[in-house]
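Tokens for chain A. Residues wanted.
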């Protein structure tokens, strides 16, 4: 028999305080009567809540609400100084940093070259130098670091990462060790997972079950199920670059060479560039080649009837083959997960834009029974940094406010 848990006065106060804080985050600044009306609390109780939150330094006055009839009311907002967070995006080439206060207001950002050394000491010094470029008024409550890999929770080591590009990260208990070296509360998260966290408020705002496919030099995916990020038992959910597919070497043939088999070998950046080159489309890299293919594919017969300029038919064929390869891997993913939405992200998808998206959608309908909608990423700027900041703010607010928001999805 389930035992009923009765609310104590302390618990009720904590719930009311948390509700008021999250309301102020979403809608503030607000007056006492507005907080009373929007929370359903009585006016005396709303006043008590505000008094407690002011005393705790979590809420501050925001001036008077002028221009209204009657008594001029005072407004309140969440105190920005209640906590700070930092987001970090680490690639083999650079380290990007963004800092914000507890309200989500960005305080600054920077991007610096990755450290030249390959050891742990060089990594720590590089991160420390990058963090120092975006100072915050007080030590951050959370630092979320996005990397090209994922921490295996069963071992504490970074897995699913290139030993060449991520050599400095391959040491035991990486999250705790790095946090102790920096003297900060560090959480390490897969970069594609962070892009999906950011997308939850953008392209996927209306769908709690979606897959994000990150197509860049490498391929990866993130799974969001019921509004929550699914990481997997070993932290490797979404590592689809390893997915065995027809037409690509398997791990048996390729051996332990990173990224030289499966979906990655079929539709990764190098493979896409080769496909388009074979169709006469040049490009310094895969993204440039995709953009050029899109441009050429849009060419039409000229007024003299001399046929398509710049090899439009060949470019369309090449772009169609790229879309078919991307859809082949997606067909396996959506058949298992059955999402309502697939978000296409990464430089390859950005370069291909709507022409590539439409082709992927058509191919996916042929290969799979899935009716998932296909959308392009709509996160402005760096989606990994945006997702890291979102994750850091969620954790910091739970700590400062005493728990998650009363309603809504949580990652």
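Reply:
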């Amino acid at each position: 028999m389930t035992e009923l848990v009765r609310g104590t006065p302390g618990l009720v106060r904590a719930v009311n305080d948390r509700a008021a804080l999250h309301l102020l985050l979403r809608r503030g600044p607000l007056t006492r009567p507005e907080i009373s009306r929007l929370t359903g609390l009585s006016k005396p109780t709303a006043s008590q809540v505000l008094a407690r939150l002011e005393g705790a330094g979590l809420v501050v006055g925001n001036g008077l609400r002028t221009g209204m009839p009657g008594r001029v009311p005072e407004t309140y907002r969440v105190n920005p100084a209640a906590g700070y967070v930092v987001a970090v995006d680490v690639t083999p080439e650079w380290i990007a940093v963004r800092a914000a206060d507890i309200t989500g207001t960005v305080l600054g950002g920077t991007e610096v070259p990755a450290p030249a050394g390959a050891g742990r000491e060089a990594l720590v010094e590089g991160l420390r130098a990058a963090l120092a470029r975006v100072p915050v008024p007080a030590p951050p409550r959370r630092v979320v670091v996005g990397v090209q890999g994922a921490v295996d929770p069963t071992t504490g080591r970074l897995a699913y990462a290139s030993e060449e590009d991520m050599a400095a990260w391959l040491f035991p208990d990486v999250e705790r060790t790095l946090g102790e070296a920096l003297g900060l509360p560090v959480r390490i998260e897969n970069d594609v997972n962070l892009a999906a966290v950011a997308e939850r408020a953008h392209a996927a705002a209306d769908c709690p079950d979606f897959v994000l496919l990150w197509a860049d030099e490498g391929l990866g995916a993130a799974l969001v199920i019921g509004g929550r990020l699914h990481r997997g038992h070993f932290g490797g959910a979404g590592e689809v670059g390893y997915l065995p597919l027809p037409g690509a070497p398997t791990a048996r043939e390729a051996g332990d060479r990173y990224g030289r088999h499966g979906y990655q070998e079929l539709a990764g950046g190098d493979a896409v560039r080769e496909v388009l080159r074979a169709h006469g489309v040049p490009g310094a890299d895969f993204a440039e080649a995709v953009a050029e293919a899109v441009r050429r594919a849009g060419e039409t017969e000229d007024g003299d009837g001399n046929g398509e300029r710049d090899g439009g038919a060949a470019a369309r064929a090449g772009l169609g083959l790229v879309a078919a390869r991307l859809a082949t891997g997606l067909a396996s993913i959506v058949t298992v997960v059955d999402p309502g939405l697939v978000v296409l992200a990464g430089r390859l998808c950005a370069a291909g834009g709507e022409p590539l998206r439409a082709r992927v959608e058509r191919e996916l309908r042929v290969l799979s029974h899935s009716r998932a909608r296909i959308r392009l990423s709509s996160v402005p700027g760096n989606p990994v940094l945006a997702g890291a900041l979102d994750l850091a703010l969620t954790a910091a607010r739970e700590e400062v406010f005493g728990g998650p928001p009363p309603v809504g999805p949580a990652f």
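The two ends are 31 Å apart (CA to CA). Residues 139 and 183 are 9 Å apart (CA to CA).
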